[in-house]
Design goal:
The complex is a heterodimer of chains A (87) and B (187). Chain A contains four helices and no strands. Chain A has 87 residues and is mainly alpha-helical. In chain A, helix 1 crosses helix 3 and helix 2 packs across helix 3. The model of chain B has no long low-confidence stretch (mean pLDDT 88). Chain B has 187 residues and is an all-alpha fold. Chain B has two domains: 76 residues, RNA polymerase sigma factor, region 2, helix turn helix motif (Rna Polymerase Sigma Factor, Chain: A, Orthogonal Bundle); 104 residues, no CATH class. Classes of the chains: A mainly alpha (87), B mainly alpha (187).
Chain lengths: 87, 187
């Protein structure tokens, strides 16, 4: 491993670290140095952020999909039976 | 069984179910958690204060069960990744060559540069298929912060994992998603 130059794989890891807790000064310097020269990683960082937004959207949609969900009547009976016999 | 637990069941079970279904994305698990919630309510009935709201009390029990479920799932990734997950780890490693540089095919579509991608129904479909390809536990990790509504380090505390463990899991999952979108998203 080079002191100044990170590999693409390391950079993609730092993309996640950056979003979660931020990078140290040294990490941030190495990160920028790499991204300036590497189009694939630059584009990957944007993709990662876009995936986050898409996930967020997906969760919202999945919530509204479940607005009308109900326990199946049979399941209800089963659970009721279990609570009745429990102590 | 205390009589009121039965009436609470009739009153609140569907609402509790919807909540746990939303949080776990699985009918079966959601049903189990609702059942466990009511069993716990029977067992700890004497701790319930008459003045309190039964609904709030039941939801707080359920929320504990949901967090426990997440923690168990996430722990199982770090401790004993299943064979399926190991396959995926090898697969994400194969995104890079021996020098850890990208092994991207020439002319890869730069989908991140398209505007309004998030509103695009086709793209949403692609996202959905790609999420379905992920191992279940990884899916849980990357959606957990939105489902549990926690940001940054809070989600690590909630899931009881170290930040470095967490971002490494997210890292793997994201690489899989990226490759999958590269493959499925064609103009």
């Amino acid at each position: 491993m080079n002191i100044m130059f990170l590999s693409c794989k390391q950079v993609t890891e730092l993309v996640e670290k950056k979003q979660l807790v931020g990078l140290s000064t040294i990490e941030s310097m190495r990160f920028r140095l790499h991204v300036v020269m590497c189009a694939a990683c630059k584009s990957y960082e944007r993709q990662s952020l876009l995936i986050e937004q898409a996930l967020k959207r997906m969760i919202q949609v999945s919530r509204s999909d479940k607005d009308a969900a109900q326990l199946h009547p049979d399941t209800k009976l089963k659970i009721l039976e279990k609570i009745k016999t429990s102590k | 069984m205390p009589h009121d637990v039965e009436s609470w069941f009739h009153k609140y079970s569907d609402e509790l179910f919807r909540w746990s279904f939303y949080k776990t994305s699985s009918r079966e698990i959601a049903e189990d958690l609702v059942q466990e919630t009511f069993l716990a309510a029977v067992k700890n009935h004497k701790n319930f204060e008459e003045k309190a709201s039964a609904k709030t009390w039941l939801f707080s029990i359920l929320n504990h069960k949901i967090i426990d479920y997440y923690r168990k799932k996430v722990k199982s990734i770090t401790v004993d990744g299943t064979r399926a997950e190991q396959n995926f780890v090898q697969q994400t490693d194969s995104h890079f060559d021996a020098h850890q540089r990208w092994t991207l095919s020439k002319g890869a579509v730069l989908w991140e540069e398209e505007s309004h991608l998030l509103d695009n129904m086709e793209f949403r479909k692609v996202m959905g298929s790609c999420m379905a390809e992920l191992p279940e536990n990884w899916r849980l990790v990357i959606t957990s912060k939105y489902l549990l509504n926690k940001k940054g380090q809070e989600i690590c505390q909630e899931l009881k994992v170290t930040p470095s463990n967490y971002w490494q899991m997210v890292h793997r999952a994201k690489l899989m998603l990226k490759k999958c979108i590269d493959r499925l998203w064609k103009r």
